[in-house]
Amino acid sequence: MLAGLRTAAGFLTRVPMGETEGVLARAVGWFPTVGAMVGLAQGLVLVGAGRFVDPLLAAALSVAASTLITGAFHLDGIADVADAFGGGWTREQRLGILKDSRLGTYGTATVAIVLLIEVAALTTIAERPAVEAVIAVMAAHAVSRAAAVVTMRVARPATVDGLAAAYVAEAGPLALTLALSVAGALLVGLALLIGGDSTATILTVVAVVLAVSLATAVMITLANRKIDGITGDVLGSVQQLSALATLVIVAAAT
To answer: Could you count the other beta carbons within 10 Å of the beta carbon of residue 1?
Structure first.
């Protein structure tokens, strides 16, 4: 069991995990757990820096910390998708662009917009009590990676030899249950901290679930139209959009 967690951590972050065992695809159930760990680190930077600098700078520093920990892994995915879907005219061209490591205009603009929205949302969240702020960032990371696991279960891979194909083949019921359990626990915990009563708590949870579901559905639909399925980069896009959706909802709730 822990081998899967180590494999997931070694894949999703730049933290040295030593030699990992097992097939990467079988670690997908642990993705939200690793996300929560990344979120914990980012949240602590957000709160800690906020004691010495203004919320805007603290938010920017926390995003920088998260980017360093993950190696901009999912940012690279959404950038590639933006370049491919925005600049490719045919399915073959789009798949070719997805495999190209170079960054184009669409990808650059998308990364800039994503980072601006994240920093803006975190600037507002940073003004909340420390525990709420940290749990909010953890929940965003966990929920967004759970959305990616759900995508693996409900969508078809665009190719038969990419990471997405391996994920889809191995993202079974147990992986989905583990992913949703971790994300759900953090989301409910966050809602309880934010909400002053049961109604507010329920509304916060529902709002996040709806926003994340919409972002995921839009990304899957777009991927089906553009490349007839999902790829690893599409999964990265789902994660980024879902994380932004969660942070924006939480910022609005504050």
So the answer is: 7
User: Tokens 């995003």, residue?
Assistant: 63
Q: Name the residue type at position 198.
A: S
What is the widest separation between alpha-carbon atoms in the chain? Answer: 52
Half-sphere exposure of 24 (CA within 13 A, CB side): 12
- Nearest C-alpha neighbor of 193 from the set 204, 180, 184: 204
pLDDT (tens digit per residue) in 166-223: 666 566 777 778 888 888 888 888 777 776 566 667 788 889 999 999 999 999 999 9
Under-50 pLDDT residues of the chain: none
Nearest alpha-carbon partner for 76 in 235, 251, 193: 235
DSSP 51: T
Q: What is the residue-averaged pLDDT of the chain?
A: 88
Across the chain, the runs of DSSP E, i.e. the strands, are none
